[in-house]
Amino acid sequence: MNPISPERVKYLAAQYANNTCTRSELNELVAYAGTEGAEEELQRVLQEHWNTLQPEAPLLPVDWEEMYERITATENSVVHFPSPIPMYKRRWWAVAALLLLAAGGTWLWMNNRPTDRGHHTLAVQLATPGHSGAVLTLADGTQVVLDSAANGNVAQQANVRVMKKNGQLIYEKEGEQAAASDKPLLNTLSTPRGRHYQLVLPDGTIAWLNAASSIQYPAVFAGKDRRVAITGEVYFEVAARAEAPFIVTTPKQEIIVLGTGFNINAYTNEAVERTTLLSGRVKVTAQENSVVADSKVLQPGQQATFHTGGRLQVQEVQADQYIAWVKNLFWFNHATVPDVMRQLERWYDIEVTYEGTVPQHDFGGKLERSLPLADVLQLLEKSGVYCKVEGRRVTVLSGKQH
């Protein structure tokens, strides 16, 4: 590309930081960030913009090197490097993103429209991000806290060994003698708020549980189907067994599959239940008071939504967005403040309340779930959403407090 002047770089950076740049201006700035020699000028211009911000209360210090390491430590980072940019240039794509983040947080929050910028001081001690952990409840009511359990055998159910291996719970048959009893041995795996876990079911199906979720299943699958019940959010990769369909029940739906990858969001504090299909084929049946209300068959890339009193709605979606949590990402798309805060509440194990009118914002973008809550709340503040923190309670304010 042709070289651009420092004045042009400054203009583009200001347009981006103020969330007023056009698509062509954004493309121009991103292209410039990938050129050799852009490092010094980008850092100078964006740091200059950062220094012009005059918050009435001090913001939390940001360790940019640590945040850079978070971003570049995983292929699922918030910064996506377009090919064929050489490796030596890629670091500055990440750095440019961080500097743009410092200039206003718009890299992650592309669609916000702050209406009332006010005063807010973040508390020093905040909740930490969620991590691997769950509670296993056996058929006899015995509970095993998997957070503290060592790797190896954690329980025996009939002729099935229940094992913990590096953050994963696995059911393994002992030879060919494992068989279902007259009364199935039902186990339940539950994740509290602030926890997630991975489970390998007796048939080899893998289930990922998001925070505040549960799955009930037999220690041995037998009969003509494989049936489990869930609450919260679970992503499945189902082991194919044509002779025994895999069936998932939620408080409002029944999903029948033969072999597929799909995500179910069935939190009780969400307005709708969502079933998103990534591969294969599923049949979604909505139920009200044990009566079938509607039924749809999904194709890959489709999502079925259902709310009480309505009908199943099917739409094409970017399915990867709905399993971003499996890759340790938040992915917001036209999300409201309550949408965002419900996810934060479950992941950071906090209580969210509202004081006055709920701010009207439209958030979009990806955010690593490994970020401390303090960093996330600081991003919200930069976008015009102010919070008061008292212990584990986060109160969303209607505006800046003076």
From TrEMBL:
* Pfam families tied to this protein: FecR, FecR_C
- Superkingdom of the organism of origin: Bacteria
Q: State whether keyword Lyase applies.
A: no
Q: Which residues form the FecR protein domain?
A: 188-283
Work out whether the entry's keyword set contains Lipid metabolism: no
Which GO terms fall under molecular function for this chain's record?
sigma factor antagonist activity
Which PANTHER family would you find in this protein's record? Answer: PERIPLASMIC SIGNAL SENSOR AND SIGMA FACTOR ACTIVATOR FECR-RELATED (PTHR30273), PROTEIN FECR (PTHR30273:SF2)
Lineage per the UniProt record: Bacteria, Pseudomonadati, Bacteroidota, Chitinophagia, Chitinophagales
* Record's keyword terms, sorted: Membrane, Transmembrane, Transmembrane helix
Residues that span the membrane, as ranges: 92-110
UniProt xrefs under InterPro entries: FecR, FecR_C, Ferrdict_sens_TM
**What's the source species for this entry?**
Filimonas zeae
This protein's name: Iron dicitrate transporter FecR
**Domain Protein FecR C-terminal, residue spans:** 330-396
